[in-house]
Amino acid sequence: MKPDQSSSSLHSRNLHRAGYDFAALVQTHPPLSQYVRANVYGDASIDFANPQAVKALNQALLKHDYAVAVWDIPKQYLCPPIPGRADYVHYLADLLAESKKLKLEQVRMLDIGTGANLVYPLIASHAYGWQCVGVDIDQQALRNAQHIIGANSLQQHISLRHQPNSANIFRGVILPGEQFTLTLCNPPFHASAEAAQTGTQRKWRGLGKSPVQALNFGGQSNELVFAGGEAAFLVTMINESKSFARQCVWFTTLVSKANNLPLVYRTLDKVQAATVKTIPMAQGQKQSRFVAWSFQPG
């Protein structure tokens, strides 16, 4: 049976819900054409195991759907899937629309670990007009992100900050008295470089390819690895968020491993979060979710 080529499990406002219109994308970004081939079902597609093809697809999607004319990333940096990133942003918009806590006229979003790709701020600023601040510990990633901002004249919508201490999440980047509507984060989920490499090889096998030494679709160690893995990162983030309870309405983070949720809930209970919500997401067969919490009543 031919599988459904759409991604109907995506958010109803996700522009990629009906799948990729490769003819339109190639017209917008002609370099993509060299990677487009008919798949086994006769549909236009690309080899998703080819990092250059995936990057070309991202460039086409960002230009076609988000008015980002210039976008590139250095070799071996994370090249994220656009539809999944867009879903997180759309569900955040739903969270804000349903929230009775909001008093800020302008939504301000803090992206923890924005990376060289800057994808979350690019989508959020275009789709909803949010003011975005991207944070990262990697200076090279920030230089590339700043180039994307400048090349697309987005200085009025997106700004960047360097996190000088890799052990901190919010400390050192949220300024005294500063207010944010929400934070978002795609945490590093490996506990070591060896675990990241094992995960990469598993991905390659899943794609029917031979394992290679390079990380699949890129990813620097700080993008993929945190001592103690995702669980330790989430605990650190939640504990730190308590110190900024009055400066941010909603703290949110992806939780890639469902078995980390009980730890997340226990930690949120310990810091006495007033409200906790878990929002499920899905892209095809891939199930995901993010957790949102607030210390503000109402």
TrEMBL record:
Pfam family of this protein, just one? Methyltransf_10
Sequence intervals crossing the membrane:
none
Where is it located?
Answer: Cytoplasm
- What keywords tag this UniProt record? Cytoplasm, Methyltransferase, rRNA processing, S-adenosyl-L-methionine, Transferase
Q: Does the keyword Cytoplasm apply?
A: yes
Q: Which GO terms describe its molecular function?
A: 23S rRNA (adenine(1618)-N(6))-methyltransferase activity
InterPro entries in the cross-refs: METTL16/RlmF (IPR010286), rRNA_lsu_MeTfrase_F (IPR016909), SAM-dependent_MTases_sf (IPR029063)
Which CDD domains does the UniProt record give?
A: AdoMet_MTases
Instruction: Tell me what reaction this enzyme catalyses.
Output: adenosine(1618) in 23S rRNA + S-adenosyl-L-methionine = N(6)-methyladenosine(1618) in 23S rRNA + S-adenosyl-L-homocysteine + H(+)
EC id:
2.1.1.181
**Keyword Membrane belongs to the record:** no
Q: What NCBIfam families would the database entry show?
A: PRK11727.1
**Function as written in the Swiss-Prot or TrEMBL entry:** Specifically methylates the adenine in position 1618 of 23S rRNA.
Which family does the similarity line name? Belongs to the methyltransferase superfamily. METTL16/RlmF family.
Q: What is this protein called?
A: Ribosomal RNA large subunit methyltransferase F
Name the gene behind this protein. rlmF
